[in-house]
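Progress report, Aim 2. The chain analyzed during this reporting quarter is listed below.
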Amino acid sequence: MSYQHAQDNWFAAIVIGFIALAVLLNILRARMGAQLYIRRIPGLDAIDEAIGRSTELGRPVTMIPGLTAFGVVAVQALTIFKYITKQIARFATPMRLLSADATVFAVAQEAIADAYNEAGRPDLYDADNIRFLSDRQFAFASGVAGLIQRERVAASFMFGEFYAESLIFAETGNMVGAIQIAGTVSFTQVPFFVAACDYTIIGDEFYATSAYLSREPVLLGSLVGQDIAKLLFALTAVGGVIASTIAGTDAPIIKLLGQPGGWEAFWSSLGGGGGQ
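Predicted structure tokens for the chain:
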């Protein structure tokens, strides 16, 4: 029976350690006040425009987290909605947040109340504007579509997990002439949002959006640290392809990069002999 020692996977351990170090260092930098760079996402520029249009028309803004159960995606969506609410509070623009999950609904009430307090307008908070409609997919979709039609919303923000109801929301908003900005981690729904919304935030941009808007050190540092890790992976892949092309896959230096027994092979090639 052969055993694979931990030293055979030293390269993977170094990579994991580097990722953790990059994330932690950037979190510390953000907490110390460093301005970490995140590129501006086009859809974010339209948030203020959409809110301004709603204010001019005197029509409400809707915020929809989709069918998101409480978890990472819901927290990210509520972080974005909290930022939007702070902007809304400056102009006393009416808003509606529509939820399909009871836990998300309860957390959303607290998040929106905090947003109005932080904006200095606690008097504008109305718990009736945060509504739990239904936990059934198409009952929820019908409720949202009906509200959009009745109140003729001027701006619709959709962030979270969406399924077949996504096109119902987007098409209904399009029918009433609302500016629509959507962001989802559900890649199967991205084409529908792209077709019917003014701006669509795709995949990783969803998490980058909440980090950029909130400027929360943990989110910001984690995002920058992960980007550094992605760059490391890309450079490692390119370097590995070039090295294996030149030296061959059986070369000790190639085996060193993660193959079992690579350390012994590399050490032996240097004349040192592998230890147990």
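The chain has a mean pLDDT of 82. The chain has eleven helices and six strands. These observations will guide the mutagenesis work planned for the next reporting period.
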